[in-house]
Each structure stands twice: as C-alpha cells, then as structure tokens.
Amino acid sequence: MNKEEIAKQLELYSNSIVAFIVFQSLAFCYNFGTSENFNSILKNSKSLSLLLILIFILAYALALYANRYISRKLQEFSEEYSPIVKATYMGKSIVISIFGFLQITVTICYALFPLKN
Questions:
Q1: Do the beta carbons of residue 33 and residue 110 sit within 8 Å?
Q2: Which of 36, 92, 110, 114 is the most exposed place for a label (fewest CB within 10 A)?
C-alpha cells in the first residue's frame, strides 16, 4: 500500500469519526425532544443521565484523540501540505467539539437539572 492510499484511508476514517459524532448528537437531541417516554426516563433517572453523560464524554474524548492522531499521521505523509492538513483537522475538531458538547449540554440542562415551573 502506498502513501496516497493510506492517506485516503485515514481521511475516510476521520470523516467517519466526524459523521458518527454529528449523527449521534443529532439523533439523541431529536429523540430527547420528540419522544415523551425517552425524555421522562432520562428526567426521572438521574443515574442513567449521569451514565449517559459519561458515555458522551468518553466518545467525545476518543473522537478528538483519533482525529488528532490521524492529523499527525497525514502531516507526516505530506509535509508540503502540512498547513492545509492542520487547518482542515482543526475544523474537524471544532465540529466534533460543537456536536459533542451539544448532547452533553442537552442532557445536563434538560434531564439532569430541568427547570421547575
């Protein structure tokens, strides 16, 4: 396998990681907002909400780590394109962070500490 094929494969892995975090976050927020059963289960079970937050934090941290690792490897493969690769992967890290914090924030604000009327 040559460097170009490896670089394409690593880029595919990176795109898959970003897509997973985005779709996981959107699916969770959609289900939390539209499913009364799911919503009430999370609001009534604080331990489940905490466990879910821990799982989200773990997935977020692993996605950031994997993204950073892939970025370093791609920068090693093509040193002349290193600034472009670095900027691209910084953008991917920002997307991972936004969607990672979205599901964590929704769980904390609406399930763990909901506002009382």
A1: no
A2: 36
94 closest CA partner among 72, 75, 67: 67
| DSSP H/E element including 67 | helix 46-77
* Vertex 85: Cα angle to 83 and 91 (nearest 5): 105
Nearest Cα to Cα of residue 100 among 64, 50, 51, 47:
64
Cα–Cα distance, 28 to 114 (Å, whole number): 17
Longest dimension (CA), the chain: 62
Distance CA 12, CA 90 (A): 16
The pLDDT of residue 115: 74
The pTM assigned to this predicted structure is: 0.91
How far is 65 from 89, CA to CA, in rounded Å?
Answer: 12
